[in-house]
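fyi for ur records
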Amino acid sequence: MSLERRRVVVTGRVQNVWYRDGCRTEALARGVTGWVRNCSAGSVEAVFEGSPEAVSQMISWCRKGPPRARVDDVEVIAEPVQNEVGFLVR
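which gave:
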């Protein structure tokens, strides 16, 4: 199976709205590994590794987020696969 890795930075009202926990739940449901964390600037950063389809689904989820979020922008950066294990909330 081919894998890909994408780093995303999500801006808007994405902290204190269960964004990280929702992201983890969605990633685990799709078999995506990586991590998600809050950034000091008020954004959320995440890394997704998995099949191209599953990673694409995660990026689509990030553009919407959980119900209380307001997503203004999602920056997507391709990176080399690093064989992440599990999905962590940092």
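The chain has a mean pLDDT of 97. thats all i got for now
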